[in-house]
């Protein structure tokens, strides 16, 4: 995610299911308002240190990372204590009562994480979680990738991707994940387009579809 250092004006980032462990590149994204990091390899809540400098961050999805630990309450309270401006955490609205409780039950993070160390999180759960992320079957990884794309489309009020026609059995998991990441990025960028821009996209897509259909007919 080092590319984020060159994107200071980006507002929405979807990096779920990507093996990310370091959030340092995000600290310069001062306009970031929504950040989706579900199911990565973030082992320590100390990584929140880099998000504390983001004044506009309102939505964070951090669930299914090793840093969530064995205690869901402690995890949520710690996140809210350090990011009190959040309006939604892990797809659940943040309440005033939670923000008050976070001052009591949450842990204040005052320093960045120590790299190559397991002392700053919940090490007892980090190892199995990391191992699980590398041993997931292809079907589960593909399911996660499709699920993330559907969530992105849901945010944009679009229909979900069809499970039946989006991917052929011969495709590798890597190519499936790449396609979904590209699709998610395109959908998010389309949100920023005006009518003229969307019409250009529509014309380009129509021409490309015609080209694919013509190629298929020739092959038959």
From TrEMBL:
Q: Where is this region: Disordered?
A: 118-171
Task: From the Swiss-Prot or TrEMBL record, give the protein name.
Answer: Cilia- and flagella-associated protein 410
Note whether Acyltransferase occurs among the keywords: no
Q: Which Gene3D superfamilies match?
A: Ribonuclease Inhibitor
Query: Whose protein is this, by species?
Result: Cettia cetti
Entry's PANTHER family? Answer: CILIA- AND FLAGELLA-ASSOCIATED PROTEIN 410-RELATED (PTHR18849:SF0), LEUCINE RICH REPEAT PROTEIN (PTHR18849)
GO cellular component terms, alphabetically, are: ciliary basal body; photoreceptor cell cilium
Keywords carried by this UniProt record: Leucine-rich repeat, Repeat
Q: Where is the signal peptide?
A: none
Quaternary structure annotation from Swiss-Prot or TrEMBL: Found in a complex with CFAP410, NEK1 and SPATA7. Interacts with NEK1.
- GO biological process: any one? cytoskeleton organization
Q: What does this protein do?
A: Plays a role in cilia formation and/or maintenance. Plays a role in the regulation of cell morphology and cytoskeletal organization. Involved in DNA damage repair.
Compositionally biased intervals (Basic and acidic residues): 148-162
Q: Which residues form the U2A'/phosphoprotein 32 family A C-terminal domain?
A: 72-90
**Has UniProt tagged this entry with the keyword Secreted?**
no
């Amino acid at each position: 995610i080092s590319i984020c250092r060159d994107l200071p004006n980006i507002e929405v980032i979807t990096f779920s299911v990507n093996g990310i462990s370091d959030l340092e590149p995000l600290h310069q994204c001062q306009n970031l308002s929504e950040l989706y990091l579900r199911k990565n390899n973030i082992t320590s809540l100390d990584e929140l240190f880099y998000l504390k400098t983001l004044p506009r961050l309102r939505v964070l999805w951090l669930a299914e990372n090793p840093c969530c630990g064995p205690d869901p309450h402690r995890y949520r309270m710690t996140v809210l204590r350090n990011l009190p401006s959040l309006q939604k955490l892990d797809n659940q609205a943040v309440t005033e009562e939670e923000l008050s409780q976070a001052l009591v039950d949450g842990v204040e993070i005052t320093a960045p994480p120590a790299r190559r160390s397991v002392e700053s999180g919940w090490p007892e759960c980090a190892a199995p979680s990391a191992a699980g992320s590398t041993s997931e079957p292809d079907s589960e990884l593909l399911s996660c990738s499709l699920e993330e794309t559907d969530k992105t489309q849901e945010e944009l009020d679009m229909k979900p991707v069809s499970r039946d026609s989006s991917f052929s059995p011969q495709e590798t998991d890597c190519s499936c994940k790449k396609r979904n990441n590209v699709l998610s990025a395109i959908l998010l960028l389309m949100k920023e387009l005006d009518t003229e821009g969307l019409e250009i996209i529509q014309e380009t897509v129509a021409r490309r579809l015609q080209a694919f259909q013509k190629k298929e007919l020739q092959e038959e």
